[in-house]
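$ fold --in a.seq
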Amino acid sequence: MREFLLGLRLLLGSGRGNRVRFALMTLGGSLGVCCLALVLTIPAILDAHDGRAAARSPRLHIGKPEPRHTWVQEFRDPHGSRPFGRVFVALGREDTPAPPPGLDRLPRPGEVYVSPALHEQLRREPGLRGLLPGTEKGLIGAAGLTDPDELYAYIGTTPAQLGSDARTLKDFGKEYPPSRVVDPSTLEALRFTLATLVLLPLAVFLSVCARLSAASRNRRLAALRLLGLSAKGTQRVNAAETVMAALLGAVLGLGEFWLLNQIVARTGLPGLKWYAADGAVSAGTVAVCLLGCPALAWFVGRASARAAARAPLATRRTAAPRAPRVLWGLLFVAGLGITAGFAATGLTTHPARSDGLNALFMPAGVLMTGLGLVLALPLLSYLLARRLARSGNLALNLAMRRNEVEPGSALRVVSGLVLLVFSASLAQGVLVELSQVSRSTSPVQEYGLPMERLSEDQQRRLREMPGVDVSAVVMAFDNDLDSDADDRQADALVATCAQLTALTARVEGCVDGEVMRLSDPNTGDEPFGTSKFLLTKDGGRLALRVPAPKDTVRYAGQGVTYVSNAALLVPPGELPPGAVPASATLVLASSSDPSTVRAVLDAIGAVAPTVEVDPAGVDIEALQQLTVIKTLLVAGMVMGLVIGVAAFLVSVTDRAVERRSQITALALIGARPRVLRTVQCLQVVLPLGVGLVLALLAGKLAETAYLVTGGGEVFWDGAGVPVLLACALGVLVAAVAGTLPLTGRRIDPELIRRD
């Protein structure tokens, strides 16, 4: 306790520079704790979403429903790119179940309860009321919704109005949700990626904050040791200061996270919104932040003071420290070997997969590579300095001699930026893997809408929507027209050759203005005769008969497509003027890029909100999940960027204060400002350059190992190399700009006399 109080007295009474350093340690620690709390709270936000979805899920009785029981029928439709959930409930005469969370009672026939987001949507799109038969009686509470933006409704009805899929309702509440916001297997990969993106740089950043002004602190601690303080007491004095800074930073960081949660919960992130209560820090998160961070600072503080406690005279006289240990270099080599081994299996016929022991070894290899890269930076800086210090250049000689004497400064200054580039490469691999899983095999995405539900104005607006590249019509034949029952018929695609080409991968033998047979060699052809189609014109009906043509147009399909449903190609001019098919599907096509698909679905929802849309081959739930995953990855990359830049800025500011006496001494013996700037720049840029090169190589190996074990088709992400090179170049430019203020303009000779 005595050493702890002594450390606090030294903290408060050792000058303005020490108080500035303490403020930097506290602010840096608060930023790190805020990011740590955010990473630890993300799983709780997702669990709260899934928990409410499970709590409102209907539990059903097995068997045919009876009129005396309560019936229920669920619908899950897309409204644009957002899921739209509707639950129809028909109350029975006996055993009425308790209402679901968010409702005080079950709706009676003709009553509708909607979510707040759906209530606002109904004001903007009154046409949606056609999907909600009844009168709005109230809003669903937060306990019954997965997030504030969810479109959800409970609709009271009668058994006679429900379809054949209705079932007997037992009660509400299941153990598992019908669909999770993020798939469990994907969530494990997401946690690993966030740990690499955020937690690994965060541990380094907190260690950097705990070792600010290590040289001046060590000299002060060495003085205490020479005055008679024990070695353990000296270490405890230093640890007291770092623990106090970490504790204050943890409290401040939790406050920053609370404020951030209140703001982001109201604004939301793309595809992900939550209630502020979902993001409240749990007791475990508070314990990790308030106990874990000071504990880390305690061990770092004791370790940083060990040299001053054991050899105080050498510390006071600034003797050259021993060379960095080779052990950390071996850790980096071991991690690099593991990732290189997994990456090499991509060249074989049997690439490795992330199952069994590989599910443990591959993440361990990536983490060992990243951690070993950071811890090996002092050794690399020391070896580089010894080799370059023999040169005849004055600036290079001065810079390398300082790095040789103090190789640990490279760890504190450049480690955050090096980890930033390494993590960016790994995150790029995760995005590539996600794009492989979610990407459609076809470059074209189709959307089908029933034409009988669309007005002429809606059809025109849909065809002219931004993002829609081509449109066509698929007519269904009509068996009710006078025809032979044995005469096989075929659906028809009403389109030009240009439209057919835009909908398919390859077209051969198409002639505009002629009715032709459609043939896909991959699916085979079936014979058919004259096909009859029912058309409507000016309120009347007329029949269109299309004999089986002799000429054939061959095309190659592109996965899931409406074209494969048709065996006839009918030019638009074959339809009588003003006539429209009585039973047909309007087919729109756009690029299969996920962002384009989402934009087109939203535009369709705005033009025709009550019309059912069938996006061929697209699962709206999967599209929503992909958006959430990308949002979380981008948030992790932003946090990693903030941590890396913060570590660099804190370290550079600390160096500016720490090196003032050295800069003053060199200036007094005649060193020019240009030489001093060059020296300071070389001290940072050369170790950083070596670290960035290794980060690029190690990051690409880690990315390749992830892609190989992920089981996708892309193993070598060459498209991402220019982006990483640009990031590395930007990091170097930022490092050069950050070293310029180190020399200063005012020279105070008194600085070389200060302790």
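$ fold --in b.seq
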Amino acid sequence: MPSLFKQIQAGTVWDFHGGIHPPARKTQTNQKPIATLPMPDRLYIPLRQHIGVPGQLLVQIGQRVLKGQALTSADNSMAVPVHAPTSGVVLSIAPHTSPHPSALPELTLVLAPDGLDEWRVREPLNISHCDKVQLLNRIQDSGIAGMGGAGFPTHLKSGVAQPVDYLIINAVECEPYISADDLLMQEAATTIVKGIDILCRLLSPKAVLIGIEDDKPIATAAMKAACSQREHYYVRTVPTKYPSGGEKQLIQLLTNKEVPNGRRPIDIGIVMQNVGTAFAVAQAVLDDHPLISRIVTVAGDTLSQQQNVLALLGTPVSDLLDACGFQPEHKQRIIMGGPMMGFTLPDLSVPVVKTTNCILAPTVAELPAATEEMDCIRCSACADACPASLLPQQLLWYSKARDNEKLAEYNLADCIECGACAYVCPSEIPLVQYYRVAKADIREQQREALKAEQAKARFEARNERLEREKQERLERNQQLAAARQQQQTSGAGNAVADALARIKAKQAQAAPQDEQNKAQILAERELKKQQAREYQQQKAQQQAVEEHAEQHSQTPATSNSTDSKAAAVAAAIARAQAKKAAQKPEQLIKPAQSVDEMNKPVRAAEADPRKAAIAAAIARAKAKQQAQTETETESETKTETETETETETESSAPLIAADAVNKSAVESNAASAIEDPRKAAVAAALARAKAKKQANAEPTEQTEASTTDPVVPETVVPETVVAEDPRKAAIAAAIARAKARKQADSENS
């Protein structure tokens, strides 16, 4: 048996399962030359016209662009740019109805042609001096995608790394009405062959197989003539049967090979390109002419002139129909694509794109609309017509049930959506529509599963990274600990010891300072305690004064006669004590007391005579109390033989007390000038009460003798003394306070 390659060389053509024979209806267009459309007023250029992702936008609104200028950039392997079909101004970049069965809006650039059709600078390539990378970059930068309907980026198909046995050029064009590739081969066969040469330069196949249906004799002859000088270029005619132009079906026809389920043609050493794609590759490489136009078949009985036209990409369908004499009728349908795999357009503003090969405007009688769907009668006609050997009836049930597992089990992915099953279905069931919806659901689930898998992989990678970093930190800490231990054992720990010694030295230096601070704190505590005790003594004295004042207020009438006598005695005693204390005044005055401090009570006395009088009364009371204490002490030591002397001393006591009262009045006046006047009044009352009590206790003779002595009025003496010399008064007050403290200390001891 001859080898496969020898069978191919001999012109053997095989067959595939199923298929149908609908009316071709190509004679209306394949006998006419390609027409050129007038420049449209607006061009609507979608930014994505292929399978993949759109490129990055390069222009902005209001910018003028030149013909062939790139509007987007190919920043991804699955992206190919789009170009300006002519020179003009960018009016807007906004969503517009897409040329897709869903009719969902896509981002579209609106270009207003300026009529100049001015080209950008072009740089053709010399293929004899170019490598594969340069060729692939030129193909991608020219925006070339599969023009047979799929729209797969051509540079990806042409840049495969696997070895290629056969390069198949698909020129079958099996669907009714469509004759765009037929006219292209008739008029540009030489350019197509040049494009095939470039593809062979990239793929290095063993042979090139050009498949053409047997209903295109003119095109077949033109291609054979163009390939006559090429070795291993074989033009093969195949029987007219739909869908012989399918990728897997044509491979089976020309090579008798079947593509495995879920695999690609490259897996069996085959690459397939459309004849229009080969033509675009030649233009891009040899002329630097990007893909900005294509041949479109405009057919249908509502058109007065059915023909193939060279349309700029972005031309609205309405302009194509108007150029062909469109005469719409009631319930008119406009179909983009062929009658088998095309879809109805929602409006006529949908533009021509890279995968648009036909626009149909049929009458209702010519192409009736689908009738109401009926129940399946299980005739198996769909299974007999399926070119992929599937079970359309089973796929329909599982599509309605959305059982994706069963759909995968029955190989829904192998469906090429040719529409042969729906064409032969007597129940008018739109089987292909159900399959398309099911495929969309499966793709969405696969995308979600892929995202979840990627997220899981990222999560696991993150956990591994964190665990690895944790282990690295643990190992690093262990190494550092071992190094420190080794340093300590080898005497390298001196630095730590020195640091500890410095810390201890600082603590030792800080210890005396801490002791001083503690001593200071203790001294402050003692001072506060002393002040508290003095405050308590003053409070007790004040309470005693208030009690005596109450007693004195009860007997005011009896105390008037004895006040002057008691005051005289107290004044005399005070003068005697003052003379005695004057001998050592420097020992009685506090060193810390300044002249200004001593003058404060004097100034206060000068400012308010009333306060001075009250202070004098308080001083008299204190002097009287002190004299009484001294008298009691002396009386205990006196003998009976000294009675006369004691009498004389007592008789002279009023004069001494008077002087003491005068001085003590000045002293107390200066000392208490800053005190509360109310307290001073209470203290004066208390002093008068005590003087009265002492006067009542003395003998009658002494009282009479003392009444004859002159006594200075209480309010006159302090004012006179203060007016004569305030400084002396302050000194006298200080002396009196010192003496009082000394007396108190002697009593306590």
